[in-house]
Amino acid sequence: TMAARKTQQEIEKTFKKVSEGIQTFEGIYEKIRQATNPTQRDKLEDHLKREIKKLQRFRDQIKSWAAGNEVKDKAPLIEQRKAIEVVRLSFLAWSLHRVIASLKGRQANTVGSAWNNSKPSKKR
Q1: CB-based contact 11:77 (threshold 8 Å)
Q2: Which residues of 26-59 are buried (b: 16+ CB within 10 A; e: fewer)?
Q3: Residue 22: Cβ within 10 Å count
Q4: Residue 39 — φ and ψ, nearest 5°?
Q5: Burial of 71 (0-12, 13-18, 19+ CB in 10 A)
Q6: 65-74 pLDDT, tens per residue?
Q7: Is 48 within 8 Å of 25 (Cβ atoms)?
Q8: pTM for the complete prediction?
Q9: CA-to-CA dists, residue 33 to 47, 96, 105, angstroms
Q10: Cα(98)–Cα(105) distance, rounded to whole angstroms?
């Protein structure tokens, strides 16, 4: 039917955007890993967050197609959703790593020094 063909075209267009989005995300992520300038890193992080939000919108659209009856073969939809989830998980892991690193940095400046001074020495 005409509606099914239109949906299929929309799906293909979305898949293309997902693929481009994942490539963009990975490119930005790589630049962040190499960035030494904090201002540059902050800009890249904002770009990364925008890209993940875009991918999440595509994921929501894909989920709604997968939940509906218009598309018979749901395997490609599920595959695309999983690809987005993998990127999303790597983003979450990276975010968590950043939070832990900043907490460790803060701890080293405050609690860390007190902690190190209060540890019993091993010389006995």
Answers
A1: yes
A2: eebbeebeeeeeeeebeebbebbeebbebbbebb
A3: 18
A4: -65, -45
A5: middle
A6: 999 988 999 9
A7: yes
A8: 0.78
A9: 14, 15, 18
A10: 10
